[in-house]
Task: structure prediction
Amino acid sequence: MNFKDLNLKKPLLDALEKSGYTEPTDIQKKAILPIIEGKDVLGCAQTGTGKTAAFALPILDKLLENDISGKKEIRALVLTPTRELAIQVRDNFRKYSEFTNLKSGVVLGGVNQKSQEAVLKKGVDILVATPGRLLDLINQRIVKLNNLDILVLDEADIMLDMGFINDVKKIIKSAKEEKQTLLFSATMPNEVKTLANTILKNHVSISVETETATVEKIDQSLYYVDKQNKTSLLMDILNENEIKSALIFTRTKHGANKLTKSINSMGIRSEVIHGNKSQSARVMALNNFKTGKSKVLIATDIASRGIDISELSHVINYEMPEKAETYVHRIGRTGRAGFSGTAISLCNIDEKKGVQVIERLTNQPITEQENSKYPMKHFELTPKKNTFNNKNNNRSRRPGKSISQNTKYR
Ligand code: AMP
Result:
């Protein structure tokens, strides 16, 4: 099958040719026709599968069918959980609509609202947005969705995880009732299913091979090491191996900041992205990494979500993720588009138990590397803090306040 078989309009086919895409990916083969036919779609697919084009191409095709681009009405809206993903999706729309009059814009938090207002005033046919800022603009009556034909919720699982559900519901409520809705999610937990059942009408379900299968192509290894030796071991790995580009994951924003300071002080230029960084700092960090100015990018899971870095040679888990699925998302950033990929994990005693869960999920063993320089010496698990069984904590609780109210003051 090629793109012509999907009946896409000529300007879109020209843009695809310019992008060098010859064949639709699996998700594109499955999603494009039903979307053009006007069906609601529930898509289970991850970043890296060609998911963005799977909804962007048929949306553009439909907007071209009834081209009223001069009217300055938002006709398609894509909601994404992170600012990086929003920009990436907008860029994709721009790439595929290069030979049309259709205009795409983005609104997101963390940057001044004025420039976004100016773009909206000029008129966009397709708007890509993060929920919080969009809701602000709707409340200020700067954005109106009363002519919206198509709504896309991208990475719905993350959007719900990040607590955007109420904003999303309010946005949907402010939009035209009769519209086509597409919901994409990498995983299908119950919350996503419930949301899908509430907002989709007679939908078509589509799913494509999960990242777990892609992971088979990645060379995975692991060092058991004590927490306090992780940075030294990491520096050895970065110095010894032929690492062209490494995406390093930490669990927390604070951990990411600390690690980037250590790495930079030891002479390897690294960038850091996480939710507390300003939008311009995140864009600059990502650009420096993508262009090879820095060979290391340190990220938290949420901030890195949806970021597409082609030709990434290594993913390093400086800290193991809490969920096995997150491990799969993390290492799936390497080994894309036919490139080989390597994933290295640094695992302390507290994180060891999770390794078996990951191996069960991926159905693959992770090769243990010998670590003679920093062998593991601590085999005792750190006791879990149980705040509310602790007498001292109970005593410090403010009188008359419930436990949940008190947690805010901790
Ligand atoms: P996505 O899952 O949308 O983030 O896409 C992952 C990567 O695949 C992006 O770099 C896209 O530009 C690229 N891509 C999307 N569709 C195709 C295709 N049909 N052929 C080759 N590359 C593609």
User: Anything to note?
Assistant: Residues 21, 23-25, 28, 47-53, 308, 310 surround adenosine monophosphate (CB under 6 Å). The longest strand covers residues 218-224. Residues 387-410 have pLDDT under 50 and may be disordered.
